[in-house]
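#help-structures
NK: newbie question, is this the right format to request a structure? protein is DUF4595 domain-containing protein
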Amino acid sequence: MKNHVFLSLLAGSIIFSSCSNDDETEDITSDKKLLLSKITTTYYDNPSNPEIVISTLTYNDKNQVTGSESDGSSAVFEYDSNGKPTKTNYYKPDKTLEYSSLYTYNGEQLTSIKAVYSNPLFNRSVSYSYDSNGRVTKSSFCESENCSNPSRNTYLYNGDNVSVETVVMTGTISYTYKTESSYDDKPNPYTNINKYLKIMMGGADVLSKNNYISGKISYKNADGTWSQSQSVIYTIQYNDANYPIQIIGKESNGNISVKYNYEYIIK
């Protein structure tokens, strides 16, 4: 049910650099917001032929995300009078409806999102749990009405950032992995996006206040022990408002694994 470019899962020793962007010439005043409008992600799984994915976001005059597009697929968001998302329609590249997501709340907390397809056999849902501070601690994914063992993401926090994200995948092929992350002290690109949409997007990168600069991915073995599988460090370039405009992830061998370029509008 995610419809955003998910930042790579990371880790290891910390390399951190901060640069200003000479191209950022607009004056960013305290009464204006920087809104994420474009993400260009370059994956280097095949260094000789990197994969490039471009995602865009559009906003209304209330600074609410009204649409997104990536690789030809698109989404349109609807809100109630209180600014809560109520429905998202997802469209195929040929502009035909693929499915709709319906949001359910308990007071001010988003409790579940259900994806509804024309064929109900494809319907699926995600439900959310929170701690006493209102932070998401678990999201559970079900691909059927009778879901006794859902896949799930759990989150442990250090301050305002997710320090450990654990993913448990169930089904025909089951596995568990965790990502342990450390962060800078700057606002992340998703800062001014609707809080409920950030919950829907999920992931430590979106749910955290800041930007992760290092981390490690470990997989759980059958005996309950963990084996580290990946180590990535991130170098971040910022604009004058201290928002990331470029993040480059390198593995422990020095090879670039991913690059993100962020663009913003000021409203």
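mod (FA): yep, format's fine, and the tokens are attached above. Residues 1-26 have pLDDT under 50 and may be disordered.
NK: thank you!
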